[in-house]
Design a protein that fits this description.
Elements lengths: L2 H24 L1 H7 L1 H11 L7 E3 L6 H10 L5 E5 L2 H13 L6 E4 L12 E7 L8 H11 E12 L6 H12 L19 H10 L4 E13 L2 H11 L1 H8 L3 H14 L4 E2 L2 E13 L1
Parallel strand pairs: 1-2, 1-4, 2-3, 4-5
Antiparallel strand pairs: 5-8, 6-8, 7-8
Amino acid sequence: MTPNTIEELRHASYQVSQAIAPGWERWRAFLEEALAPVREWMIRELGPQPGDTLLELAAGAGDTGFQAAAITGQADHLISTDLSPAMLEVARRRGAELGLGDVDFQLIDAERAELDTDSVDGVLCRFGYMLMADPAAALSESRRVLRPGGRLVLAVWGIPERNPFFAAIAAILARRGHLPPPGPGALSPFSMASPDRTRELLAAAGFCVVSMDEIAVRFFFRDIEQYLTFVADTAGPAALALRGLSQQEREEVKAQLKDAFGTFVTQRGYELPGSALATAAS
């Protein structure tokens, strides 16, 4: 991959994050409820201690880092970061809502972190590395800023077959020509779905995997329309593709989703399963 291509991917990632930040804020509570098992696993494996300085990369609304900081009792030892100014403002507002005025909010590109070497005790990144243009560089930077004995905890989405909540809409949009087909060099939520791939990236950055688990999650939607609103608000490149559809195209996609989600119908509407790959490394 050429540097020019990496820069293009970085720019695309930035633009997407800026565009979906308002949606992430609207759906924050919904997402945190669904992703609670992932957040709890990460914090448990991180094992934050009083006095620890913690760094959250691609923090989004920031709740994972905020919960970890609550355990240490020192919000001023949390560095909550994102590449997107709009997303960082979402985290800032969430921190203020929780009374965490001492958090250090910083605009940081995880691939080129402007932080001192050996300056933090723990790094958290939930669903971030997988969408970075150069995750290898980001992981190397995470290794650099970690103090000896520090720990990295991360989560990425598992294989598409276990994540129909996103894989189905992505496949439909790709078939209809609204998303590029999956392949090397594309921003994809499944770019680190393989445990072997994630282990290789971590080893190349100088990490040793301490634990790795698949964590099941569930998303509940009352109907397909609510699901499509969620996707258009939050789902990265798929969100932007969906926003660009004509009403007729949207209705056709909606009909295809009803067929794809037929096995997930419940009395509550739709219960869509997901699977995260969570890893702790030191």
